[in-house]
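Example 3.2
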Amino acid sequence: MLKDNDKIIDDDLHIAEKFIKYLNKTYNKDFVLPFHPKEDNSIDALTHRESNPQEMLTIQIVKSDFNGWEALGKEGIYIVSRDRSEKILDTIVNPISHKSNRYSPDFKRDLILLLHGWWTVDEDVLNYFKNNCLDSFFRLQKTGFKEIWFVSERWDGPIYRLWPY
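Structure, written as tokens:
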């Protein structure tokens, strides 16, 4: 039987695996499937190049729209009638800010942050964010993460680079 922590690790590795497969295919890389480092709970997933094991990626994952996840878990409902700006704040900006405040600048410098994408966020919302929310977009730069990506939990959902642009 899986413990709650094991379920979280499995969810995180699923998102990290989807991201690594995308990187390998899109950018012709050869990263091995991600794994969870047993000795370090501050890292959700690690991977390295098969051709060069010294080239590693350190990955941290945060659920986008954790307020939506929480409401769904507690109340069994999810409100989808939010306007686009509120959805962007809840699903992109707030989770990134939340994770950014947890780590030192030195730690974040080599860290790739993956937003475990909520199913209601599609490419239209992500494109709107990138093209119309410049204040929020430039806040991503100030978070100090090496890269920030949105990885949809849907198998056919988008994988979208948020930072660097």
